[in-house]
Automatic annotation (TrEMBL):
InterPro entries: DegT/StrS_aminotransferase (IPR000653), PyrdxlP-dep_Trfase (IPR015424), PyrdxlP-dep_Trfase_major (IPR015421), PyrdxlP-dep_Trfase_small (IPR015422)
Modified residue annotations for N6-(pyridoxal phosphate)lysine: 203
Pfam families: DegT_DnrJ_EryC1
GO MF terms, alphabetically ordered: pyridoxal phosphate binding; transaminase activity
Organism encoding this protein: Actinokineospora iranica
Protein name: dTDP-4-amino-4,6-dideoxygalactose transaminase
Gene3D superfamilies attached to this UniProt entry: Aspartate Aminotransferase, domain 1, Type I PLP-dependent aspartate aminotransferase-like (Major domain)
UniProt entry tagged with the keyword Lipoprotein: no
Family indicated by similarity: Belongs to the DegT/DnrJ/EryC1 family.
Active-site positions on this chain: 203 (proton acceptor)
Length: 401
C-alpha cells in the first residue's frame, strides 16, 4: 500500500468511464480493520456501548491532539453546536451572528438553543464570515458571534475576536470541518468560549456514522456541556470515572457518543496527520491540473492572515460557470460531486420568518450558485484526479496547458 501522504505513481490509468465516487473510505477501513476490530471487541467485552470507556479514551486522545483542556463527545456535530451554545450562556431571544453561507446546522443550532440567528455576508475568497459584515449585523440584542471555518481554512479570527471584544460578545466557533487547523498554534475552536468537531464519515476524521464533540478550555462550559449531553444530569460521568451523583439540574438531551464510534475514531486518529498530508497532496494535484482551465472561475485560495495559519483540505471547492450543467456532465461520466451549498441560509424556508430578501448577501448567493466540491479523500488516486480534471476541461472545451 502506498504511503498515505503521497500520490499514486504517475501513469496508473483510470479507464474511461470508470467510476470516481465523491467519497469512499473502503481502502482506509480495509487497512485499519484489524485495529478497529480489536477496539470494537473491547467495547463488546465491557458490555457498555454508549457513554463508556471507549468514549473517555477517545476524548482524552483527541484532547492531546488538539491541545484542548476538555473534549466532550456527543452524537453529532449539530448537537455539539446546540450544547455549546447553551453551555456558553445563550438565552431565549439572544442574537447570534452567523454567515449566510454554511450548512444549515450553523443557524438551526442557534434556534434549537433558544436564540435567533442574524445573518451576515461572507468573504468571497475564504467563504467565511466577513468581519465588516458581521460588525454591521450587531445590535443591542447580539450575544454571540459564530465564525464558521469552511473547506480548507480558518475565518479571520483576529478580526472576529477584536469585534467581539469591542461589543462584549462571546465567540463560539463552528469548527466542525476544521480539525487540524490552527491560528498561531492554537487549534480551531479554542479561540473563544469553545468550538465543535464533526466526525461525520466524510470529515477529515470521520466515523462509521454520526458523532461529534465540543472542545473548550473553559471548565464551566465543559461541565455544563457534559451534563446537557446526558439529560442535564450533573455528576453522572463516564463509567471509567467515579460517579458523584445523579441530579438533573438543566433540561438536556440524549446526545451521548456511542462507544462503537469512539472505537473507530480511536483507530483513525493515529493516521490523522498522514490523511491531512494526503489531502494536501491531492488538492495540489487538482490545482496544478485545473489552473487556467476555461470555465473555472476560482480555485481554492488560502489567504495570508496576521497570524500563522495552516490550511487543511476537508473540501476542494471550485467556482465554475454553468455549475449545474457541469455537475450533470460529471455525473453522466460516473464522477461524484457535492454542491456546497445550493441555497443560502437566509433563503432557506425554515428561516422565512426572519424576513430576508434575495440579494441581501450577494457574496453568499454567488458562492451558492457557482461552487462545487470535487472528490477529495485519502483513498483517491492520482489517476482519478486526472480523470476528473480531464472531464472538466472537456466540458469547457479547454485542453490542459
Amino acid at each position: 500500500m502506498e504511503h498515505a501522504a503521497t500520490l499514486a505513481e504517475p501513469g496508473t490509468a483510470t479507464p474511461s468511464g470508470a467510476r470516481v465516487p465523491f467519497f469512499t473510505q473502503a481502502a482506509t477501513f480495509a487497512a485499519l480493520w484489524p485495529e478497529i476490530e480489536a477496539n470494537v471487541a473491547a467495547v463488546v467485552e465491557r458490555g457498555k456501548y454508549s457513554h463508556g470507556h471507549a468514549v473517555g479514551e477517545f476524548e482524552a486522545a483527541l484532547g492531546r491532539v488538539v491541545d484542548a483542556a476538555h473534549v466532550v463527545g456527543v452524537n453529532s456535530g449539530t448537537d455539539a453546536l446546540v450544547l455549546l451554545l447553551r453551555a456558553a450562556g445563550l438565552e431565549a431571544g439572544d442574537e447570534v451572528v452567523v454567515p449566510a453561507f454554511s450548512f444549515v446546522a450553523s443557524a438551526s443550532s442557534v434556534v434549537l438553543a433558544g436564540g435567533r440567528p442574524v445573518f451576515a455576508d461572507i468573504d468571497p475568497v475564504t467563504y467565511a464570515l466577513d468581519p465588516a459584515a458581521a460588525a454591521a449585523a450587531v445590535t443591542a440584542r447580539t450575544r454571540m458571534l459564530m465564525p464558521v471555518h469552511l473547506f480548507c481554512q480558518l475565518a479571520d479570527l483576529g478580526a472576529v475576536t477584536r469585534l467581539a471584544e469591542r461589543h462584549a460578545l462571546t465567540v463560539v466557533e463552528d469548527s466542525a470541518e476544521a480539525i487540524g487547523m490552527r491560528w498561531d498554534g492554537t487549534h480551531a475552536g479554542l479561540h473563544g468560549a469553545g468550538g465543535v468537531l464533526s466526525f461525520f464519515p466524510t470529515k477529515t476524521l470521520g466515523a462509521l456514522g454520526d458523532a461529534g464533540a465540543v472542545i473548550t478550555n473553559d471548565d464551566r462550559i465543559a461541565e455544563t456541556a457534559a451534563a446537557l449531553r446526558h439529560h442535564g444530569r450533573f455528576g453522572h460521568t463516564l463509567d471509567h470515572f467515579p460517579g458523584i451523583g445523579n441530579e438533573t439540574v438543566l433540561p438536556g438531551l440524549n446526545s451521548k457518543m456511542d462507544d462503537v464510534q469512539a472505537a473507530v475514531l480511536l483507530a483513525k486518529l493515529g493516521r490523522l496527520d498522514a490523511d491531512i498530508a494526503r489531502r494536501a497532496a491531492l488538492a495540489g494535484a487538482y490545482t496544478e491540473r485545473l489552473r487556467g482551465c476555461p470555465g473555472v472561475r476560482r480555485l481554492p485560495t488560502v489567504v495570508e492572515r496576521e497570524a500563522e495559519t495552516n490550511p487543511v483540505f476537508y473540501v476542494y471547492a471550485v467556482e465554475v460557470e454553468h455549475r449545474d450543467s457541469l455537475v450533470a456532465y460529471l455525473a453522466a461520466h460516473h464522477v461524484g460531486t457535492e454542491t456546497y451549498y445550493p441555497v443560502p441560509l437566509h433563503r432557506q424556508p425554515c428561516f422565512a420568518d426572519l424576513g430576508h430578501r434575495p440579494g441581501e448577501f450577494p457574496h453568499a448567493e454567488a458562492a451558492c450558485a457557482r461552487t462545487v466540491a470535487l472528490p477529495l479523500y485519502p483513498d483517491l488516486t492520482e489517476a482519478q484526479v486526472d480523470r476528473v480534471c480531464e472531464l472538466i476541461r472537456a466540458f469547457y472545451g479547454g485542453s490542459r496547458s
